[in-house]
Predict the 3D structure of the following.
Amino acid sequence: MYDLTHSPLMVTMVTAAMMMPMLLLSLIGGAMADRIDRKTITIVSDVSLLLSFLGLFAISVAGIMAPWHILSVSIINGIAFSLAVSARQSLISGLVHREQLRTAVGLSSTTYNAAQIIGPAIGGAMLPLLGPTWTLGASAILVIPALVLYSSLEPIKHTSVNQAQGSIIENVKAGLTYTFNASTLRFLMLSAMVMILTVGPFQSLMPVFAEDVLNVGAGGLGVLMLAAGVGALIGSISVVAIGDSIGHEKLELIFGLSAAAALASFALSPWYALSIIMVSITAFSATSFMVVNMTVLQVSAPDYIRGRVVSVRFLVIGLMPLGALTMGFAAESLGAPIAVAIIAGIGAVGFTLVQIASRILPMAKSDTNS
C-alpha cells in the first residue's frame, strides 16, 4: 500500500479495513461459537482466508494491483476472522483437561499474539528477497498446514458443541451482560482497550518509519519487523513461564507502561540500531500484556458462555482501526515520530488510570445466567 500511495493514512487504512468488521461481527461470532461446532467454524474461516490470499496473489501476478484490491481483501479477511476468532479461541477448552486449561490458554494466546508480530516480521524479511508477489504467495501456502491441523483435532470432551438457548440476539445480550457484571472481566476489557487504542497499532506505521524517518528501505523494514517478532516471541513465552507467581493486574501495569515507554523511545530515536532495540522491547511488552489479558479472561469465563465473553474481548480489539487511523491522521499532520510518541504517552496515562479505577470503583458480582 505504501509503495502504491506513499500515504501513512492509507497504510493504516489496511489495518482499519481488516479490523473494522470486528465491531460489527465479533459478537455474532461469539454467539455462534456457543451454538455451533467450533471446529467447523474455524475450518470454514481458514478456507475463506486461503481463497482471499490466492485472489490477491493472482492480482499481483497479473500486475494490476491497486489500493482497492488490498482494502477489499483486508475486509474479507476481517469478516472471516471476526466470525471465527471466538470459536478458535474457545475450542481450547474441549482439547485439554480442566487442570491444564490455564497453561493451554496461555500457550494459545502466546501463539496468537506472537503471530501478529512474527508473521509481519517474516514477511518484512522476505519482501526485499522475493518481492511482494511471492511473499503473498507464501502467505497463501501457509494457510494449508493450518487447515490440515484443524481438521485433525479430536476434542477429548464435548465442550466444542454448545447449546446456547434462545435467539442469536438473546445470546449476544447474555454475553454482554455477563461480561459487564463480572468485575475481573471489566478490568481486563478496559485495560485491553487502552492497549488497542494506543500502543497496539504501532506496526501499521512501520513502513513509514523505515522509509521516511530512518531511511533504511524495505531491507531495513524487514529487520525492524524481525526484531519485533523476536521480542514478541520471547515475551509471550516468558508470560507462560511466569504463570501465577505475579498477579495479573501488576503484570498488565508493568507490561503496559513498558510498552508505552519503549514505543515513545522508538518513535523519537534518530538511530537505526536503537530503533531495532526499542521496537523489540515494544513488541515484547505489548505481546506479554495481551497474553496475560487473554489467559485470565478465558480462565475466568465458564465454557457455556466462553465464546461470547471472548467475542467481547475481540470487539475491543476491533477498536484498533480507531487507534490506527488516529496514528495515521496524526502522522500526516505532525509527522510520524511526534504523533506516535504523543499517543504512547496517552497510553501510559491510560494504563495507570485503569489500575486506579479498578481499585476504587465498586465491583458487582458476576451474573452467572446464560
